[in-house]
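Page 37, continued from 36.
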């Protein structure tokens, strides 16, 4: 049982902190870096949960918003699970595997395979991609795109940690889980867009976008319009 009576201990005032096994390292240590990325990812997923809960169930005209209730239920269940798993993962990353406490239950193939099962189910309800999509869309989808990029950063950090401390410094299943989680976040974003009957914003290569003049002319026309209104 975790008991926290106070947060401010002063133990980190000189730039060091403790791992789970009690050993001290500089806060710039690669292991603390991946723990921080894991924590950041968990925090962003909290934002996704907030934005999904904010989705209105009805349009402004009173009509039911298609799929919003389904998104509420799925995001609450799925993202809650992921946040708990990221806490498990962060605790594991905060200690070399050989020093992990015997009581700690670790992420394993079950959690990684569940991510794949979720994705397979969502992909039955979205159209196949014919182009890359821009990291945009409604609030939950946009934040999910941010989350997946942080998941990739976490993955890169784990790879660097294994290069620095040896391949046994992080269990292989951890890398598998994080790799799949980034894909999971991307697919969830696509599924939300489909469930809400919204459109994905496809990337158009530079050669197909035509001439681009920027927005200077638009800004100037707006200013002229404002000047005309001043005379009324």
């Amino acid at each position: 049982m975790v008991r926290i009576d106070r947060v401010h201990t002063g133990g980190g005032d000189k730039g060091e902190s403790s791992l789970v096994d009690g050993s001290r390292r500089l806060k710039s240590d690669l292991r603390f870096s991946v723990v921080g990325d894991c924590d950041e990812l968990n925090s962003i997923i909290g934002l996704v949960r907030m934005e999904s809960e904010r989705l209105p169930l009805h349009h402004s005209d009173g009509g039911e918003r298609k799929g919003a209730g389904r998104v509420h239920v799925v995001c609450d269940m799925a993202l809650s699970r992921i946040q708990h798993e990221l806490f498990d993962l962060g605790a594991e990353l905060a200690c070399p595997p050989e020093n992990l406490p015997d009581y700690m239950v670790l992420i394993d193939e079950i959690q990684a395979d569940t991510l794949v099962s979720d994705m397979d189910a969502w992909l039955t309800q979205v159209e196949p991609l014919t182009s890359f999509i821009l990291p945009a869309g409604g609030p939950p989808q946009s934040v999910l795109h941010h989350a997946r990029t942080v998941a990739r950063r976490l993955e890169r950090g784990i790879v660097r940690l294994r290069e620095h401390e040896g391949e046994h410094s992080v269990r292989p299943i951890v890398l598998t889980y994080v790799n799949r989680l980034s894909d999971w976040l991307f697919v969830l974003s696509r599924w939300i867009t489909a469930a809400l009957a919204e459109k994905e914003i496809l990337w158009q290569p530079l050669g197909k976008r035509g001439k681009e003049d920027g927005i200077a002319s638009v800004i100037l026309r707006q200013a002229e319009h404002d000047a005309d209104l001043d005379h009324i």
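The chain is about 55% helix and 5% strand. Flag for discussion at group meeting. The longest helix spans residues 139-165.
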